[in-house]
From TrEMBL:
Keywords: Glycoprotein, Signal. It comes from the Eukaryota. This is Putative laccase. PANTHER family: MULTI-COPPER OXIDASE, MULTI-COPPER OXIDASE-LIKE PROTEIN. It comes from Lupinus albus. The lineage of its organism: Eukaryota, Viridiplantae, Streptophyta, Embryophyta, Tracheophyta.
Amino acid sequence: MGYSSRKLNCVLLLVVLLVACTKGEDAYRFYTWNVTYGDIYPLGVKQQGILINGQFPGPLIESVTNDNLIISVFNSLDEPFLISWNGVQQRRNSWQDGVYGTNCPIPPGKNFTYVLQVKDQIGSYFYFPSLAFHKAAGGYGGFQIASRSVIPVPFPPPDGDFTILAGDWYNRNHTDLRAILDGGADLLFPDGLIINGHGSNSNTFQVDQGKTFRFRISNVGLTTSINFRIQGHKMLLVEVEGTHSLQNTYDSLDIHLGQTYSVLVIADQPPQDYYIVVSTRFTSQVLNATSILHYSNSAGGVPGPPTEGPTQIDWSMNQARSLRENLTASGPRPNPQGSYRYGMINVTRTIRLQNSAPVINGKQRYAVNSVSFIPADTPLKLADHFNIQGVFSLGSIPDNPTGSGGGYLQTSVMAADFRAYVEVVFENPEDNLQSWHIDGHVFFVVGVDGGQWSDASRQNYNLRDTIARSTVQVYPKSWTALYMPLDNVGMWNVRSENWAHQYLGQQFYLRVYSPANSWRDEYPIPSNALLCGRAIGH
């Protein structure tokens, strides 16, 4: 190649780089994770945990709206593994969702690189292992998406930022718990609660007097709701799973399975130590775990015993109704959150989902509309993409409760149209609280009430300023109603966040379909996609 050709190529390369910079391509962040077993002692008992880069909980992901995240996961376990991203929407990209309905597991000794974009999102979330009851062994961590610098945030920058991953814990290894469930039994009551991988008083969060600190609290447990409070301090709620909330003040917060809240706390009390408390909710036996809020100029220890939490269901339901969207605050984009008038959009379909606990073939199972989900031999997304027959059938779960007391096993997939606007009603006829998550979407919680839902229940919907989120609770013998835009093409998991219930069938997949085979609606299958089952060879 001559000098002038090389010079021309250099000039062209420079032009391309200048154009890329001018376009301001979104930033890339790179992570390399090694997933291993390791000894952990969350409640003082040695057990086998799942570590990421030797850590439990795993590394915190810190990102900014629209960032591209390249996460290379090496599976050094002795069984297949997947990571999912609770609340991260994976816009046009269910290929990266990390559940068995969308992804082949990472085989032992192999790796897979997730390529995520946190498109048009802000807020506080967490990631977790989605297969084989691995979540009972750890493997989870925090996930933050900050607003872009050009987008106003409706509160001043805090002086510190803490992530709290709390929840119930079992002293038995996940393989033992899994064997109990596979044998047709249910899990016993948890052995305790942990905060950031440890039992009581093992964590200290240091604050400076007079300053404001942000706490992002997630319930990463398996079976129980928790209440969170800080002795002697008020909490100003500012964000709920990516939505800037109306800034109400609370003494304590009920946080149900899979949910995340973000609060501001001012260190405005006398300089000493205070208890941070989590306790179980809606359980006959109340478990507690504590950490320490330590003032940097502390003059003394913790004053007295930890404060007690609330006990009534009505108290919790009223708190749930108090959650409101901050209509004037910007979300991930500069336009106000309230500019999306969710209550003025015509509903195109109503889906009623009722949980149940049938015994099928002599074993305890859990179901939705009488269908208890069983995994197929091939991820549903791959079967759909390659048009592999016999893996699943659309319409294999009905839109309404069947009214029967029994249940049956099925790889349940519900068909839905892209850009439809649906009303989803979760109905809970049982005596225990339910918590539900929908991947790939956010929804507006328009109604929460006791008793049986009916058409007349719509008269009391909040159609103006309810909270938008991705995980919602349904109280015992109660219902919760949502409005949800189906604005994300893909195969999406709808699941109970009670992990024993999810494992034993209380989940299904929502196939949001667009007839236009276009990158505008959905990204193509990744070039590094793992193939398994009947997808091998395609």
